[in-house]
Design goal:
Blueprint lengths: L1 E6 L6 E6 L6 E5 L6 E6 L6 E8 L6 E7 L2 E7 L4 E5 L4 E3 L3 E5 L7 H4 L15 E6 L29 H11 L4 E6 L3 H15 L3 E6 L8 H8 L13 E5 L2 E3 L3 H11 L3 E7 L9 E5 L10 E8 L3 H4 L4 E9 L4 H21 L13 H11 L4 E5 L4 E3 L3 H12 L15 E2 L3 E3 L4 H6 L4 E3 L2 E5 L2
Parallel strand pairs: 2-6, 11-12, 11-14, 12-13, 16-20, 23-25
Antiparallel strand pairs: 1-2, 3-4, 4-5, 5-10, 6-7, 7-8, 8-25, 9-10, 9-24, 14-19, 15-21, 16-19, 17-18, 17-19, 18-20, 22-23
Helix pairs in contact: 2-3
Length: 455
């Protein structure tokens, strides 16, 4: 739920939108420096700082939202022809009647991010089945999802007509995956539509939907398949399962990870990426038995460190990407661990006089499965992924990843003509927005802007 306050000013109505869980608090004031200028102030740090300036007169039909969320602050400009312009730090919108500018900077040039080189993908024959986790709420990436446009995070537009989950489908098809299982919940229709388009374009992959009536945890969808094999008869219990997060953008070679998984004899192999000292505390860190001086840190997992300090992490630098390879031998253990957890939750509910649950509240890979593997000495392996990977957890990560893709450094096929989808000044157009944008009469757009069509 969002709460909002509308402030009537001498210029135009401006809305301050506070998303649930947002640490920021907004204020709006007339600028003491310049007439007909409003300053949006954010005090997330306890020290009020200017977020944006709104200068001039907004014509009829144009409105502005200052939006605070867990994923960061931004402005949303609404126009009479049903477009919404998401303005990130560094963005400037110039119109004959007004100017909007957002403080700070979102986009970094590709050369500063040191993206790894693209490697050709290979087809593999170890497994034909994969699962994409597509049921998450995506609360950190508001308002790019349900607030204005009605998308789940995996269904967000990506390069050209594709979607975030669509690029995963294409990537998996190119590596030999033919059967794809996807759990859905939040904004389900948007995910299904994106999958249908992607599978049709790929031509060699079919998806099977696992409808959830509530989020069941990262391993909940897999359990649903195993407990309903008659319904999901296309699932082969003799094959490994490759699992990916639905908000991942990657050009990783999963065939190499699956080959490593098979050769190591692991129950679960976790795709992991080396992170810098500065980023250690942002991730769950994997401790392996591999010599930390080696370039390749792949190896047996001994324990997990949840967002440790640099001192606590020691020499360990591998963070989980959310890519997992699961051996068929583990399927019965997953069912057994789930049954044990459910029995425990039922006993706790009974002791408190609460209704007996029919299912576990959540069943999670990181919390439930990996811990049980270590407790039972089930072999866990980490495989170091060298290629690009990013989860689009918040709006800034989404925009930065789009910029890298459109600049051609990630290896995705780019649409033509490119200017209908991306401007080098840092402007991204969702489908059906480039021509409509011209109607709005802007004289300049630059610095970190996503243009979308409202549903």
């Amino acid at each position: 739920m969002n709460s909002s306050t509308t402030l009537e000013t001498l210029m135009k109505a401006v809305t301050l939108v506070q998303a649930k869980g947002a640490p920021q608090q907004f204020a709006l004031a007339e600028s003491p420096i310049k007439a007909s200028q409003l300053v949006v102030v954010s005090d997330a740090s306890g020290q009020p700082e200017p977020l944006a300036c709104i200068e001039g007169e907004l014509p009829a039909g144009f409105t502005v939202d200052a939006y605070a969320s867990r994923g960061g602050d931004l402005l949303v400009l609404h126009t009479p022809n049903n477009l919404a312009y998401f303005l990130f730090p560094g963005a400037i919108v110039q119109h004959p009647s007004f100017k909007l500018s957002v403080s700070g900077e979102t986009l970094l040039p590709a050369e500063k991010l040191a993206c790894p080189p693209v490697v050709p993908t290979k087809k593999q024959a170890i497994t034909k089945q994969a699962m994409i986790l597509g049921a998450g709420l995506g609360s950190r990436i508001q308002p790019l999802t349900e607030t204005y446009v009605g998308f789940a995070k995996p269904a967000l537009p990506f390069v050209g007509e594709s979607s975030v989950i669509g690029q995963l489908v294409e990537h998996l098809a190119n590596q030999g995956i033919e059967r794809l299982f996807v759990n859905t919940f939040f904004e389900r229709d948007s995910v299904v539509a994106a999958l249908q388009m992607a599978c049709k374009a790929a031509g060699t992959i079919e998806f099977f939907e696992i409808k959830e009536d509530r989020p069941t945890g990262t391993a909940g969808g897999v359990l649903h398949i195993l407990n309903h094999l008659q319904t999901f008869s296309s699932f082969n219990v003799e094959e490994p399962l490759l699992v990916l997060q639905g908000d991942a953008v990657t050009n990783a070679d999963h065939s190499a990870m699956l080959a490593f998984h098979q050769q190591s004899g692991a129950s679960v192999t976790i795709g992991a990426q080396k992170v810098s000292d500065e980023d250690v505390s942002k991730f769950g860190i994997i401790a392996t038995t591999t010599d930390a001086t080696k370039a390749d840190l792949s190896g047996a997992i001994s324990r997990f460190l949840e967002k440790p300090s640099l001192k606590e992490a020691g020499s360990y630098r591998l963070a989980s990407t959310g890519f997992y390879a699961i051996a068929p031998s583990l399927y019965p253990r997953l069912q057994a661990w789930y049954a044990e957890k459910l029995a425990k939750e039922k006993a706790e509910a009974s002791a408190k006089g609460l209704p007996t649950p029919a299912d576990c509240k959540e069943f999670d890979f990181a919390v439930d499965v990996f811990g049980a593997c270590l407790a039972e000495s089930q072999p866990l392996q980490a495989f170091q992924i060298e290629q690009f990977w990013c989860d689009i957890g918040n709006p800034a990560q989404y925009l930065q990843t789009l910029q890298l893709a459109y600049e051609g450094v990630l290896g995705f096929t780019l649409p033509e003509p490119l200017h209908q989808w991306y401007l080098p000044e840092g402007v991204v157009f969702w489908p059906e927005t480039a021509e409509a944008n011209i109607e709005n009469g802007f004289t300049a757009l630059r610095g970190g802007i996503v243009v979308c069509k409202k549903v």
